[in-house]
Amino acid sequence: MVHFVGAGPGAPDLITRRGAALLQEADCIIYAGSLVNPALLGLAKPECAVYNSAEMTLEQVLDVMHRVDAAGGTTVRLHTGDPCLYGAIREQMDALDADGIPYDDTPGVSSFCGAAAALNAEYTLPTISQTVIITRMEGRTPVPEKEKLASLAAHGATMVIFLSIGLIDKVQQALLAGGAYTPATPAAVVYKASWPEQKVVRCTVGTLAGSTRANGITKTALIVVGEFLGTRYERSKLYDPTFTTECARSSSGAPPGSSVDRTPDGFTATTIRLS
Question: Are 64 and 51 in contact (CB under 8 A)?
Protein backbone atom coordinates (compact mmCIF):
# COMPACT_ATOMS: atom_id res chain seq x y z
CA MET A 1 0.00 0.00 0.00
CA VAL A 2 1.20 3.48 -0.89
CA HIS A 3 -0.15 6.64 0.74
CA PHE A 4 0.42 9.91 -1.10
CA VAL A 5 0.40 12.57 1.61
CA GLY A 6 0.47 16.35 1.42
CA ALA A 7 2.97 17.71 3.93
CA GLY A 8 1.49 21.20 3.96
CA PRO A 9 3.30 24.46 3.20
CA GLY A 10 6.11 24.06 5.72
CA ALA A 11 5.17 24.39 9.37
CA PRO A 12 5.04 20.82 10.74
CA ASP A 13 1.80 21.43 12.63
CA LEU A 14 0.01 22.27 9.38
CA ILE A 15 0.01 18.66 8.19
CA THR A 16 -3.41 17.05 8.56
CA ARG A 17 -4.11 14.66 11.43
CA ARG A 18 -4.57 11.86 8.92
CA GLY A 19 -1.26 12.66 7.26
CA ALA A 20 0.56 12.67 10.59
CA ALA A 21 -0.98 9.32 11.56
CA LEU A 22 0.11 7.76 8.27
CA LEU A 23 3.67 8.98 8.83
CA GLN A 24 3.68 7.41 12.29
CA GLU A 25 2.52 4.06 10.92
CA ALA A 26 4.64 3.93 7.75
CA ASP A 27 7.27 1.27 7.10
CA CYS A 28 8.86 3.53 4.49
CA ILE A 29 8.77 7.27 3.81
CA ILE A 30 9.86 8.83 0.53
CA TYR A 31 9.88 12.60 0.98
CA ALA A 32 10.35 15.48 -1.45
CA GLY A 33 13.74 16.72 -0.28
CA SER A 34 14.24 20.19 1.17
CA LEU A 35 10.70 21.21 0.23
CA VAL A 36 9.41 19.12 3.14
CA ASN A 37 10.11 20.22 6.70
CA PRO A 38 12.49 17.62 8.19
CA ALA A 39 10.63 17.90 11.50
CA LEU A 40 7.89 15.76 9.95
CA LEU A 41 10.33 12.89 9.58
CA GLY A 42 10.54 12.87 13.36
CA LEU A 43 7.08 11.27 13.37
CA ALA A 44 8.47 8.10 11.79
CA LYS A 45 8.92 5.00 13.91
CA PRO A 46 12.57 4.02 14.56
CA GLU A 47 12.58 1.13 12.10
CA CYS A 48 11.04 3.14 9.25
CA ALA A 49 13.17 3.40 6.09
CA VAL A 50 13.46 7.02 4.89
CA TYR A 51 14.40 8.13 1.35
CA ASN A 52 14.98 11.59 -0.12
CA SER A 53 13.35 11.64 -3.56
CA ALA A 54 15.40 14.69 -4.58
CA GLU A 55 18.25 12.23 -5.04
CA MET A 56 16.18 9.64 -6.92
CA THR A 57 14.65 9.09 -10.35
CA LEU A 58 11.03 8.10 -10.85
CA GLU A 59 12.15 4.53 -11.54
CA GLN A 60 14.09 4.39 -8.27
CA VAL A 61 11.10 5.75 -6.32
CA LEU A 62 8.85 3.11 -7.86
CA ASP A 63 11.36 0.37 -7.16
CA VAL A 64 11.32 1.22 -3.45
CA MET A 65 7.50 1.23 -3.44
CA HIS A 66 7.44 -2.17 -5.14
CA ARG A 67 9.88 -3.73 -2.68
CA VAL A 68 8.07 -2.40 0.38
CA ASP A 69 4.69 -3.54 -0.96
CA ALA A 70 6.04 -7.01 -1.80
CA ALA A 71 7.22 -7.32 1.81
CA GLY A 72 3.73 -6.41 3.06
CA GLY A 73 4.69 -2.92 4.20
CA THR A 74 3.26 0.55 3.63
CA THR A 75 4.96 3.52 2.02
CA VAL A 76 4.17 7.19 2.55
CA ARG A 77 5.07 9.30 -0.46
CA LEU A 78 5.38 12.69 1.23
CA HIS A 79 4.93 15.64 -1.11
CA THR A 80 5.11 19.32 -0.30
CA GLY A 81 1.89 21.33 0.05
CA ASP A 82 -0.92 19.41 -1.62
CA PRO A 83 0.24 16.72 -4.06
CA CYS A 84 -2.35 17.71 -6.67
CA LEU A 85 -0.45 20.91 -7.54
CA TYR A 86 2.85 20.38 -9.38
CA GLY A 87 3.40 17.17 -7.44
CA ALA A 88 4.14 14.86 -10.41
CA ILE A 89 1.94 12.21 -8.79
CA ARG A 90 0.00 11.10 -11.87
CA GLU A 91 2.98 9.24 -13.35
CA GLN A 92 3.52 7.46 -10.04
CA MET A 93 -0.14 6.51 -9.72
CA ASP A 94 -0.31 5.23 -13.28
CA ALA A 95 2.72 3.01 -12.66
CA LEU A 96 1.18 1.67 -9.45
CA ASP A 97 -2.08 0.96 -11.30
CA ALA A 98 -0.15 -0.95 -13.95
CA ASP A 99 1.47 -3.12 -11.28
CA GLY A 100 -1.67 -3.62 -9.19
CA ILE A 101 -0.33 -1.82 -6.12
CA PRO A 102 -3.08 -0.06 -4.15
CA TYR A 103 -2.70 3.57 -3.11
CA ASP A 104 -4.66 6.52 -1.77
CA ASP A 105 -4.21 10.27 -1.56
CA THR A 106 -4.34 12.43 1.57
CA PRO A 107 -4.61 16.14 0.74
CA GLY A 108 -2.51 18.81 2.36
CA VAL A 109 -2.55 22.58 2.83
CA SER A 110 -1.13 24.08 -0.35
CA SER A 111 1.51 26.79 -0.20
CA PHE A 112 -0.86 29.14 -2.03
CA CYS A 113 -3.08 28.94 1.05
CA GLY A 114 -0.03 29.45 3.24
CA ALA A 115 0.87 32.53 1.19
CA ALA A 116 -2.59 34.03 1.69
CA ALA A 117 -2.26 33.44 5.43
CA ALA A 118 1.16 35.10 5.47
CA LEU A 119 -0.35 38.10 3.69
CA ASN A 120 -3.49 38.13 5.88
CA ALA A 121 -5.30 38.25 2.56
CA GLU A 122 -8.46 36.96 0.92
CA TYR A 123 -8.06 36.03 -2.73
CA THR A 124 -11.75 36.42 -3.62
CA LEU A 125 -12.96 39.87 -2.62
CA PRO A 126 -16.43 40.96 -3.77
CA THR A 127 -16.34 43.26 -6.84
CA ILE A 128 -12.55 42.81 -7.09
CA SER A 129 -11.95 39.18 -8.00
CA GLN A 130 -13.94 35.97 -7.80
CA THR A 131 -11.36 33.95 -9.73
CA VAL A 132 -7.96 32.61 -8.70
CA ILE A 133 -5.57 31.54 -11.45
CA ILE A 134 -2.86 29.13 -10.33
CA THR A 135 -0.10 28.83 -12.88
CA ARG A 136 3.63 28.95 -13.59
CA MET A 137 6.05 30.56 -16.01
CA GLU A 138 7.33 28.21 -18.65
CA GLY A 139 10.87 27.04 -18.05
CA ARG A 140 12.30 23.58 -18.57
CA THR A 141 8.69 22.41 -18.32
CA PRO A 142 6.66 24.02 -21.12
CA VAL A 143 3.09 25.23 -20.71
CA PRO A 144 0.30 24.83 -23.28
CA GLU A 145 0.18 27.70 -25.77
CA LYS A 146 -3.21 28.90 -24.50
CA GLU A 147 -1.81 29.04 -20.95
CA LYS A 148 1.06 31.43 -21.56
CA LEU A 149 1.40 33.79 -18.60
CA ALA A 150 0.61 36.90 -20.66
CA SER A 151 -2.61 35.29 -21.90
CA LEU A 152 -3.76 34.42 -18.38
CA ALA A 153 -2.75 37.86 -17.11
CA ALA A 154 -5.22 39.39 -19.57
CA HIS A 155 -8.05 38.32 -17.25
CA GLY A 156 -6.91 40.64 -14.47
CA ALA A 157 -7.99 38.06 -11.88
CA THR A 158 -6.13 37.10 -8.73
CA MET A 159 -3.06 35.17 -9.82
CA VAL A 160 -0.77 32.83 -7.87
CA ILE A 161 2.42 31.92 -9.71
CA PHE A 162 4.39 28.84 -8.68
CA LEU A 163 7.89 27.71 -9.62
CA SER A 164 8.83 30.95 -11.35
CA ILE A 165 10.81 33.10 -8.94
CA GLY A 166 14.04 32.36 -10.83
CA LEU A 167 12.43 33.88 -13.95
CA ILE A 168 11.19 37.01 -12.22
CA ASP A 169 12.10 39.44 -15.02
CA LYS A 170 10.18 37.37 -17.58
CA VAL A 171 7.27 37.07 -15.14
CA GLN A 172 7.06 40.84 -14.75
CA GLN A 173 7.20 41.36 -18.52
CA ALA A 174 4.48 38.78 -19.14
CA LEU A 175 2.18 40.21 -16.48
CA LEU A 176 2.38 43.68 -18.02
CA ALA A 177 2.03 42.30 -21.55
CA GLY A 178 -1.39 40.87 -20.66
CA GLY A 179 -2.86 44.37 -20.59
CA ALA A 180 -5.08 44.04 -17.50
CA TYR A 181 -2.41 44.63 -14.88
CA THR A 182 -0.56 47.94 -14.76
CA PRO A 183 2.79 48.83 -13.16
CA ALA A 184 0.76 50.01 -10.16
CA THR A 185 -1.17 46.74 -9.66
CA PRO A 186 -0.40 45.31 -6.19
CA ALA A 187 1.80 42.22 -6.00
CA ALA A 188 3.73 40.28 -3.41
CA VAL A 189 6.39 37.61 -3.09
CA VAL A 190 6.07 35.11 -0.25
CA TYR A 191 9.21 33.14 0.55
CA LYS A 192 8.77 29.82 2.39
CA ALA A 193 5.24 30.47 3.64
CA SER A 194 4.72 29.25 7.24
CA TRP A 195 8.39 28.29 7.74
CA PRO A 196 10.34 30.08 10.52
CA GLU A 197 12.31 31.93 7.82
CA GLN A 198 9.17 33.11 6.04
CA LYS A 199 9.54 36.46 4.29
CA VAL A 200 6.84 38.63 2.72
CA VAL A 201 7.72 41.29 0.17
CA ARG A 202 4.90 43.61 -0.88
CA CYS A 203 5.38 45.52 -4.09
CA THR A 204 3.67 46.27 -7.40
CA VAL A 205 3.85 44.56 -10.77
CA GLY A 206 6.15 47.34 -11.94
CA THR A 207 8.59 46.81 -9.05
CA LEU A 208 8.23 43.03 -8.81
CA ALA A 209 11.59 42.02 -10.26
CA GLY A 210 13.56 44.71 -8.47
CA SER A 211 11.93 44.04 -5.09
CA THR A 212 12.57 40.31 -5.41
CA ARG A 213 16.27 40.85 -6.17
CA ALA A 214 16.63 43.48 -3.43
CA ASN A 215 15.43 40.92 -0.88
CA GLY A 216 17.71 38.15 -2.15
CA ILE A 217 14.87 35.77 -2.98
CA THR A 218 15.88 33.25 -5.62
CA LYS A 219 13.86 30.10 -4.85
CA THR A 220 11.04 28.54 -2.81
CA ALA A 221 8.71 31.50 -3.20
CA LEU A 222 5.27 32.25 -4.61
CA ILE A 223 4.33 35.34 -6.60
CA VAL A 224 0.83 36.69 -6.04
CA VAL A 225 -0.75 39.44 -8.10
CA GLY A 226 -4.02 41.30 -8.06
CA GLU A 227 -6.16 44.07 -6.66
CA PHE A 228 -7.14 41.81 -3.77
CA LEU A 229 -3.94 43.12 -2.19
CA GLY A 230 -5.27 46.67 -2.38
CA THR A 231 -7.77 48.47 -0.16
CA ARG A 232 -10.90 48.62 -2.36
CA TYR A 233 -13.70 46.08 -2.04
CA GLU A 234 -17.34 45.76 -1.04
CA ARG A 235 -18.50 43.85 2.00
CA SER A 236 -19.70 40.31 1.49
CA LYS A 237 -23.40 39.61 1.09
CA LEU A 238 -22.97 36.56 3.27
CA TYR A 239 -23.22 38.55 6.52
CA ASP A 240 -25.18 41.50 5.15
CA PRO A 241 -28.26 42.12 7.35
CA THR A 242 -30.42 42.45 4.21
CA PHE A 243 -29.26 39.08 2.84
CA THR A 244 -31.54 36.16 3.82
CA THR A 245 -29.93 32.74 4.16
CA GLU A 246 -31.69 29.37 4.09
CA CYS A 247 -31.01 29.00 7.80
CA ALA A 248 -32.54 32.39 8.53
CA ARG A 249 -35.65 31.52 6.46
CA SER A 250 -36.10 28.20 8.28
CA SER A 251 -38.39 28.12 11.27
CA SER A 252 -35.68 26.37 13.23
CA GLY A 253 -32.66 25.83 10.99
CA ALA A 254 -31.34 23.47 13.63
CA PRO A 255 -30.23 19.85 13.39
CA PRO A 256 -32.26 17.10 15.05
CA GLY A 257 -31.83 16.93 18.81
CA SER A 258 -31.08 20.64 19.17
CA SER A 259 -32.98 23.78 20.06
CA VAL A 260 -32.98 27.34 18.74
CA ASP A 261 -33.31 30.35 21.04
CA ARG A 262 -33.11 34.11 20.64
CA THR A 263 -30.40 35.91 22.60
CA PRO A 264 -31.21 39.26 24.30
CA ASP A 265 -29.48 41.14 21.47
CA GLY A 266 -31.59 39.42 18.81
CA PHE A 267 -29.15 36.80 17.53
CA THR A 268 -30.09 33.16 17.02
CA ALA A 269 -28.33 30.64 19.26
CA THR A 270 -28.46 26.91 18.54
CA THR A 271 -27.95 24.47 21.39
CA ILE A 272 -26.82 21.01 20.26
CA ARG A 273 -27.43 18.17 22.70
CA LEU A 274 -24.80 15.44 22.61
CA SER A 275 -25.88 11.95 23.64
Answer: yes
CB 175 within 8 A of CB 153: yes
Q: CA separation (Å) from 23 to 106, 164, 212, 213?
A: 11, 30, 36, 37
Other residues' Cβ atoms within 10 Å of the Cβ of residue 46? 4
Strand 186-191 to strand 158-162: parallel, antiparallel, or no bridges (unpaired)?
unpaired
List every span in the chain annotated with CATH 3.40.1010.10. 2-109
State which fold the 112-229 domain adopts: 3.30.950
Segment 152-203, tens digit of pLDDT: 999 999 999 999 999 999 999 999 999 999 999 999 999 999 999 999 999 9
Contact 112, 6 (CB under 8 A): no
DSSP 158-203: EEEEES-GGGHHHHHHHHHHTSSS-TTSEEEEEESTTSTT-EEEEE
Angle at 225 between CA 224 and CA 226, to 5 degrees: 135
Q: Can you give the three-state secondary structure of 76-113, one letter per residue?
A: EEEECECCCCCCCCHHHHHHHHHHCCCEEEECCCCHHH
Class of domain 2-109: alpha beta
pLDDT tens for 219-258 read: 999 999 999 999 988 888 888 888 776 665 554 555 666 6
Contacts of 221 (CB under 8 A, 6+ apart): 165, 189, 190, 191, 192, 212
Strand partners for 79: 6
- The strand pairing partners of 43, in sequence order, are none
